[in-house]
Amino acid sequence: MSSLGSMSWRALLASALLGTSLSVAAQVAAPTLKAGDTWTYRGIDNYNRQPTGTWTREVTGTAASGIRVAVRSADGSVDDLFRAPGELTSGVLNDRARGTMDPAFQLMPFPLGEGKSWSQKVIRTDPVTNEKREMLVRGKVLGWETIKVPAGEFRAMKVERTMYLGDYDSFRGITQRTETEWYAPDIRGAAKVVVFEEFCERRYGCAMGSFMPGARATYELTSYRGG
C-alpha cells in the first residue's frame, strides 16, 4: 500500500481552521485557507510501531473553482481538490479509492460542535476505469481533548468518521476505513490522525468474522507553517 494512499490527508486539510484560539465551548467555524499553508507529519505503522516516513500537505491554490492541496511523500505527489473546506471533489482516499466525487464528499461538516453527527452517500468516478462507485461516510464530533505530538501539546477537537469506499472487486469486498482526528485550532489543522481499515474476502462470502486487516497507521504533526 502506497504511503500517499494510506494517509487520506484530505481529511486533515478539511479540518484546518482560522488561526485564532477558541474556547473549548465554541463551535469551530470553516477555515479561510491561504496558498503556502503547510502541515508536515510523521507516520507510524500501528502493527509494529515503526516509522513509515514523512508527509507534507501544502495549499497550492485558492480560487472560486476550489482549493488545491499538494500531498507529498517519498512516493511522490498527488493533488486533492476541495469545493470548500471539508468538501472533497477530487482526490485520493486510499490506494484503491480515488477520483472525482459527486456531490462533494463531506469529510468535515463545518461548523464543528461537540455531539454533531452526519452521514452522506457519494458517487465516486474512478479516473482509470471510469467506473462509478457508491461511497458512504458517517461521522461524529466527540469533543475536546488535550494531546501531545512532536510539534507540541494542543487542545484539540476529536472527530471520528467511518467511510465505506466502494473499492470492491472480484476478490474482496468494500474497505471500511475509520479515521479518528484531533483538530487543534492553534495550528489551524489536525495535530493527529489515526487510520483503521478492514475489508472482507469474497471467497468467504463476506460472512461475519471474515474481515481482513488493512491499513493501520498514526500520523502526528511535526511542524506547521502559515501561508
What's the number of helices? 2
- Residue-averaged pLDDT, rounded? 86
Describe the global form.
Answer: globular
Cα(first) to Cα(last) distance is 31 Å
Task: Let me know the number of strands.
Answer: 12
CATH top level class name: Mainly Beta
With strands numbered from the N-terminus, the spatial order across the biggest sheet is 1-2-3-4-5-6-7-8-9-10-11-12
Name the descriptors.
227 residues, 2 helices, YmcC-like fold, twelve-stranded antiparallel β-barrel, 58% strand, mainly beta
Describe the overall structure.
This protein has a single domain (3-26, 37-225), classed as YmcC-like fold (Beta Barrel), CATH 2.40.360. It is globular. The chain contains two helices and twelve strands. It starts with a helix and ends with a strand. The protein has a twelve-stranded antiparallel beta barrel. A hairpin with a 4-residue loop joins strand 10 and strand 11 (189-200). With 227 residues, it is mostly beta strands. The longest helix has 5 residues, at 3-7.
Quick summary of this structure?
The chain is mainly β.
What topology does this entry show?
Elements: H1 3-7, H2 10-14, E1 38-45, E2 51-63, E3 66-73, E4 76-84, E5 87-94, E6 97-106, E7 117-125, E8 132-149, E9 152-164, E10 176-184, E11 189-200, E12 211-225
